[in-house]
Amino acid sequence: MKNLLFFLLPVFFLLSFSRAKHPYHVGSVEINYSQKSKTFEVTGRFFLDDLEDALSKKYGKPLHFNDPKYKTQLNESLKSYCNEYFKLKTNNKFLNINFIGYEEDHESVNVYLESEVVNNPQKVEAAVSFLYNLFDDQLNIVHIIVNGDRKSEKLTYPNRYLYQQF
To answer: Are strands 93-94 and 97-104 parallel, antiparallel or unpaired?
Structure first.
């Protein structure tokens, strides 16, 4: 039941609000270990307006999703932003994380990252602080999946660190 709540909560928030400002600041991050590629595939999902505001505040210039003329700037800004606000460590070794890209719709943005190759992750540590530079009530729900074993945790500002053993 707890895992179902962790799954449904971000889906509800991300899909239930219009373009008007919303009263909740929530995002979700899924860190999924792929046996095929031997990498962690990471997907972050955030309200479009929140991520847009966080990037604009961080880099001191207006950036707008759903506007093709900002695509290059958004890619560069998101790459830097993710590098600063997301860290992943497994088996006591920090992993290099590559920014793959993003997808947007009218209300949310999915950000895609991938780690370097890692074999047999036993201990996974993450530092997740997306949107902490904008909101002091930000909640990030983080799912870590290794070999089908899913562990979820919520991180509320200022808490950014989590640890899971597999």
So the answer is: unpaired
- Angstrom distance (rounded) from CA 83 to CA 75: 12
pLDDT band at 106 (very low <50, low <70, confident <90, very high): confident
> How many Å apart are CA 64 and CA 92, to the nearest integer?
38
CB 90: neighbour CB atoms within 10 A?
24
| Cα distance from N-terminal residue to C-terminal residue, the chain | 21
Q: Note the pLDDT tens digit of each residue in 114-154.
A: 999 999 999 999 999 999 999 999 999 999 999 999 999 99
